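so my prof wants the structure for this chain in the tokens format not the other one, which i didnt know existed until like an hour ago. anyway here's the sequence
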Amino acid sequence: MADLRRPAIILHTPQLGENIGAAARVMLNFGLADLRLVAPRDGWPSASAEAMSAGALGQGVQVSVFDTLEAAMAGLTYTIATTARPRGMEKPVFDAPGAVAAVRGGAGLAGILFGGEKSGLPNEAVALCDAVLTYPVSPAFASLNLAQAVGVFCHQWGAAAGLGGRFEGKEEGVGAPAPREDLIGMFEHFEAELDRAGYFYPPEKTPVIINNLRNALIRANWTTQEVRTFRGAIKALALGRGKARVKREE
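here's what i got, hopefully its the right format
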């Protein structure tokens, strides 16, 4: 049974198989799987689309091919046409977040319509849609690659759907926060070695210097492992200084 909250992506007369494959790939990246092609120039299936999809066409994206846009819209209750040009039609105009909100708030299955690489959507295709989607692109260069245009919408869809991504619920390479007593022990260790090296001068400014050091260090949000590593570095520097002293005395 179709998920009525996930729209179909419709590519109207796409030309390059590479763009179809790239669109399929970014669709699956952000949780969309219904890809509809209207009269693809080079036919279907397409080896170049398969290669560019990086496996998306075999791992979840379902492709349907139609001779006409009317046929591709079968089963849809709401459609949005993407365009960078004013069309002189009285339709709601959305940006990507607005289009996603309209789809998620509607009933039935929606479709997002993208035009072919050469000239975008014809007016007759836009006329069949309920609303228009446009992106805040530079007026001096408003033409988007087809797959990139699909990607902008898909990214917004994934963000609104709450997709957590690969790092959801984990912090790779980051350990547990250091307990305060470990942090204070590190400070005292560091300050003791600085004192032995004669760093605190003049002596009456020692409390101010220590506070400055601690304020700077504490902003790093230390982990337990980082504290251990830093204390090891302090110890190594102290040992090195001791060895150098012995050599000088010899």
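also thought this was worth mentioning. The chain has a mean pLDDT of 90.
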